[in-house]
Design goal:
There is one protein chain. By secondary structure, the chain is mainly beta. Helix content is about 0%, strand content about 40%. It has 1 helix and 18 strands. The strands form 5 sheets. A 4-stranded antiparallel β-sheet has the order 2-3-4-5, with no helix packed on it. A hairpin with a 2-residue loop joins β3 and β4. The N terminus is likely disordered.
Length: about 230
């Protein structure tokens, strides 16, 4: 554990998160210094289980649920759902992850519809076909990180995809045969990306593709970790 905490100048916090946004009530049963507004399906949300939240460069808040993608402008929600007869609609209604690139496109990872790219200029989606090394389609994408305009890292239900957007080629690898989900990605140094694999945190060294195990929750009888938070 000491080796893990000393590995990086930044401190990595590993809480079991209770998401407070979009909930009402007090803050830790006391008086809160913040005002919370609760939004539900009665206010326009497509569904009540929110699995991802993102704010884009234009200020819109995006909420991925288990049944629809929601864009919020501070006043009302716009809902996006799959339409089987429209190839420019989102490919699946369960949206796990979102990340904007330097060109303003928003990339979305879904539960069973693979990767989508949203163009805010046209308000349309494009499904981006991806395959694992063995040839199977990449359907479930849990996390997205843009390293550069040309390079993107995806955490999937079956390991990691390191994608070259120029060529369309990707490098696929898994880390733990007992738990292949990659739930979260964070850059901790110019050459290092932290990968969260449920019970383990790995350091992925970008210059040579090597991977080190930094932390294993099972060694400390801890429950699986769901997110990585970096304190600067």
């Amino acid at each position: 554990m000491a080796n893990f905490l000393g590995w990086c100048e930044k401190r990595v916090w590993l809480p079991i998160l209770a998401v407070l946004i979009l909930t009402g009530g007090g803050f830790l049963h006391g008086k809160s210094p913040y005002n919370f507004t609760r939004y539900t399906i009665e206010d326009g949300l497509s569904q009540g289980t929110i699995v991802s939240i993102y704010q884009d460069s234009r200020g819109f808040m995006w909420f991925g649920t288990q049944d629809g993608l929601n864009r919020f402008d501070g006043y009302q929600f716009k809902i996006y759902k799959n339409n089987p007869t429209d190839s420019t609609s989102i490919s699946h209604n369960w949206v796990w992850s979102m990340a904007e690139d330097s060109a303003g496109y928003i990339w979305l990872g879904t539960f069973a519809g693979g990767l989508n790219r949203y163009d805010p200029r046209t308000d349309r989606f494009t499904k981006v076909p991806l395959k694992y090394a063995q040839g199977q389609d990449v359907n479930s994408i849990r996390s997205i990180y843009h390293l550069s305009p040309q390079r993107m890292i995806l955490g999937t239900s079956n390991g990691v995809l390191d994608v070259d957007r120029r060529s369309g080629k990707s490098h696929h690898f898994t880390l733990d045969p007992q738990n292949t989900n990659i739930l979260d990605l964070h850059r901790s140094a110019p050459d290092t990306l932290l990968l969260l694999g449920g019970t383990r945190i790995y350091a992925y060294h970008l210059h040579n593709g090597s991977v080190d195990t930094l932390f294993d929750a099972r060694e400390f009888s801890l429950t699986p970790v769901r997110e990585i938070w970096l304190k600067w």
